[in-house]
Amino acid sequence: MATPRLIRKLALLALYQLDARGEQDAEHVRASLSDAESLAEEGLCFDENDEKLTERDYARAYEMALRAYRLRGQADRLLLELAPDWPPHRQAAIDRAILRLGYYEIVSNKVPYRDAINEAVELARSFSTEKSPTFIKGLLAAVYKRHAAGKNPEASS
Fold first, then answer.
1. pLDDT by residue (tens digit) across 1-16?
2. How many CB atoms lie within 10 A of CB 59?
């Protein structure tokens, strides 16, 4: 079984694709996750420390991505409110995907909020620009404060 970090990386890949392709191509996105050969050709290797991914791992990553994708409207509205100078359409696509994934993890309460934020920062360090980790950490910390204060009621529905 894969580590949560590895699942999260795969979820980010799927969420990035869903953002570009839309949910109508969801099955193609899901299939692309388990095509390790194609991923390797693109320079993406997700098997770490001889850890082999199972179909269950791919399914968990895909489900996480799909849930984050379906919350994108809520995430984008809150992120726009918190960072009006950086609306989602102005953000780099990878940063937008990381923020949406982090938002999902925070509002779903599936992992401790600090873990969600720290993991989002690590994704930004791995896949984005030098300034992205700070931007993402600040925004997701503000998301958590809103969520903890109950000021993001639509997220719980």
1. 788 998 999 999 999 9
2. 14
